[in-house]
Task: structure prediction
Amino acid sequence: MFGWEFPPYNSGGLGTACHGLTKGLVNHDVEVVFVLPHLPNPIDAHVRLIDASKVGGEIKSEKIDFRKIDSLLVPYMGSDQYSEEYSNLAKKYAHLKQAMPNYGNDLFEESLRFAEKAELIALSEKFDVIHAHDWMTYKAGIRAKKATGKPLVVHIHATEFDRTGGNNNQYIYDTEKEGFENADYICAVSQFTKDKVCHHYGINPDKVFVVHNAVEFNDNKFDGGEFKLKKYHKIVLFLGRITIQKGPDWFLYTAKKVYEKDPEVKFVFAGSGDMELRMIEKAAELGIAHNVIFPGFLRGKDIDRAYQMADLYVMPSISEPFGITPLESMRNGTPVLISKQSGVSEVIDNCIKVDFWDTDKMASQIVDVLHDIEFHRRLKETGQLEVMKFSWDEPAAKCIDVYKKAIAKQRCANG
Amino acid sequence: MVSVCFYFQVHQPLRLRKYGLFDIGKNTDYFDHGKNKEILDKVSKKCYLPANSLMKYLLDKYPEFKISYSFSGIFLEQIEKSHPEVLKSFQDLVDTGKVELLDETYYHSLAFLYSKKEFKDQVKMHTKQMKDLFGYKPKVFRNTELVYNNELANFIEGLGYKGIIAEGADHVLGWRSPNFIYKAKTTKNLALLLKNYKLSDDIAFRFSSRDWKEWPLTAEKFGHWVGAINGNGQTVNLFMDYETIGEHQWACTGIFDFLRKMPEEIMKHPDNDFKTPSELVKSYHPVAELDVHNTISWADVERDLSAWLGNNMQKIAIEKIYAMESQVKKIKDEKLTNDWRKLQTSDHFYYMCTKWFNDGDVHKYFNPYDKPHDAFVSYINAYNDLQLRIKEHTNAPVVMR
Result:
């Protein structure tokens, strides 16, 4: 399995999904070897993790310190951001009058490097199926398939259309398409995403299986008395990367409308991302910044702490392939409002669903759920019950079916 | 006759610590004591102690030499607690009888712009502190960051002061010179002393700049410049941060040697002398009335409020803090009032300034945060805690659950 990131070293939902899915696979007695471009520190995991940067061998880029390369390569970085980091680094080295180490010219070259390593790893490991997550690992998956003849399943957690709100990078689109076309089968995290794969990339729907994500449960219980803020204010939470895909600006426009109806509501705006500073300024510009708390990127227990502190979780994503966070929130007993433009809205009922652009509706729904005690209690209780049905064993079982199909198909092809 | 008037601003803010979401409601300590102490240690060693001993030497050696200081209340509060030797050395200077002290707002705040009542309270606190620590009663006022306008002048005259300090901003002076005393418009007789920003900044900002064509600046050269004003002005007001000496301009730049020689160079011209602000007020008649209806300050090229109130983050932060005034004062809890006032210090808003932040200029030098937004976020979080404390006192939960 080729991935990007693995908790605790993750910057978003992809790492969380890989963690849950591999756990589910292990429960079904599937042995998983998980290959990452780079692992900062050894960690305890239920799967064998391979750090590609530590794999040597006869390849062109042998002398490169992959650790350094990988410091530029983080999952949610767009190519613009990569170029910026790259040019900053180039400036730094120019200043030091030193030759710049052998970094790839861009993000794309880096994914090619990962693919080269992937081939080596694939040749030295025993396995039946290759499973690659999102575009940066697709080239690795294809190389491994070509080198070993093993079937390839690609998993799509987010397309370029989701991430960019439509301003696609052509190379990434091409890489995604190449992955879809070279894959024996495709797992999409929702029907919403499957439709994107078929409509935007022209892939045959028969090849694409919907495998909805699930959620892993931690039992972090916090004493309600710890949240003094909650004693005097209703709290609405945003938790996610602060980037266009997640609709952070829609959250603020909605917050402004809620503020006009109830100026005592506090908004917790958790996460980091390329729009973070702009959102802080925007909150000030809208005149609501005194009610918006920016805690930055939360990890571990603090995530559950934030959910439990909140009266409502809002996910106003403009295009959310799945969206695990609403499930996490429901698990923590916090009702959720999600945009209809999300995969998760296909699988949960006990929540509020609104179009991300309909800030009037979103604001009035927020005010309703915050003030109608009965409504709030009902959403909380039914949501908590509903979320219990989610387990990673289920998507894992679906993946195993896909694996079996892929292996069978391969055998047929090989006669 | 040219009288050289030195006024040094002495201030250290109480910088906020990184105050996060989960601190709200749990932690009422908003300030980074470690960092504040560390900076005070550093500046005491590099500036306050050696500069004070230089001043003592000059005051003892030259009977004509005089200086003045304006201390922020929170600066004195800090050194009283952790650096008594620094306080003692300032007290020794005042005891020479050749040092004038000015009044300002205790919390180094911009209160005048938002609440006259709060402003007056803070000035009164400062006056009391001057009496308690130095046995001194100031007669001249200087507002935080030299923020000034007609209305302030009128208010200050009402409090009984004889003079006030302001920036000699070009856009206010026009063809007129800062080297005279003016009468503040809208006052009966309040003397307005204007900073000669060119000569002040030659020391405060340009002294060590090798790109400056006058570098290196010698005491002799500076003495000539001051002497040249004879016939064309009565006073040269050199107003600057005290931290210029040894902190903004490190000892290795030669700043101490420059100042050690300066009085002698200035006295070489028989018509020159040194005066304190209130001596200037007594000695010279105002040459004209000066109308400053738009607020000025001593910051940046704009000489306006944009360093503290230029963007929306700064505006909402300061508006919200002053909006709490009546609630805070009704509760009458000393610790709460004190914390609220400490959040009024102008530096908090300065750290949120986004003007030229990318160019890494003077703003960045003074900013303990990586980004103005970090300063803003910690500030707003502390504000939220303060708001909770008010609610706890008034005991009025607003939500039902």
Chain B has a mean pLDDT of 94. Residues 306-394 of chain B form one domain. The CA atoms of residues 11 and 75 of chain B lie 5 Å apart. Chain B touches chain A at residues 20-22, 24-26, 311-313, 315-317, 320, 371, 373, 376-377, 380-381, 383-384, 388, 391-392, 397-401 (CB under 8 Å).
